[in-house]
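PROTEIN SPECIFICATION:
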Amino acid sequence: MYGLYQLIVLVLVQNTRFSILRRIRQSLVISFTMEPMGMFEIECPCCQAILKVDPDTRAVIAHTVKEKPRSIDDLAVEVAKLKGEGARREELFQKQFEAEKSHGKVLEKKFDELFRRAKENPDSTPPMRDIDLD
């Protein structure tokens, strides 16, 4: 005869994926209630669904999925957020566009500064690069 833990693991092996089973084995939180017919209910620690298990056949007879809360409470508020997103995206685009326009000037100034340093001190060796060490 199987113990309760072994029975639950056997049922879960038959009805779930292995990765979910591994998480369930690591932290098995079971709250069950015996029914007159011998079936008991188990709460899944991953999705909080209620599984009704028959101990004789070691099979899940029924399951009840936990009701998820609504993600959008007020549709008008969500529409207002979406309208504001367009202006924010446009602002970010303009900011990046201006940065990209001045990027060439920044690179040119950096090059001029490094070129000036190289002319002032021609005897110094160039800095070693990783590829030069090979």
